[in-house]
Amino acid sequence: MSWRVLVSAPYMLPVLEEFRPRFEREGVEVFAADVRERLSEAELLPLVAEIDGAICGDDQFTERVLSGAPRLKVISKWGTGIDSIDAGAAARLGIRVCNTPDAFTDPVADTALGYVLCFARRLPWMDRNVRRGEWLKPDTVALRECTLGVVGVGHIGRAVVRRARAFGMRVLGTDPQPRPVRSSRRPA
Hints:
Layout: E1 3-7, H1 16-25, E2 28-32, H2 41-44, E3 53-56, H3 63-67, E4 74-77, H4 87-92, E5 96-98, H5 105-121, H6 123-131, E6 147-151, H7 155-166, E7 170-174
Parallel strand pairs: 1-2, 1-3, 3-4, 4-5, 6-7
């Protein structure tokens, strides 16, 4: 084996054996960390000295951890946010940091709109009342009567907008990054 890779991404661990033969064909030795959600700095320190790469979740790749990994060349985050990785220290040490765009766009958008639906239709309160044997009519609104404001219309924000429009909601959005204006007019 020419490369050693730590896998600590909780979503990859259950399917790691499916990918192991491909890793081995490419000369990559993978080893799985015992992790439930994320590894702390203290948990990572004894694991990183002999690794060349990491496929991680929200593990705490601090400057101390990165400095303790002299062979480390790349950290690949299973997800989009890399705020748990000290990107400045990684850059100084020549460690490439990658992420997985759109890895959780649909589940996060589903959850966000699920909460909107729960609160508009008062579903948690209705459920509680029904379980008590009460059938009360709560004061609710239909989503088509609502306006949804989306702050941040990147991948997830746009996915939420698509779902909200399917319910007939009026949608307003803003984003700190300017988006190109798309014309609805066709050229003559």
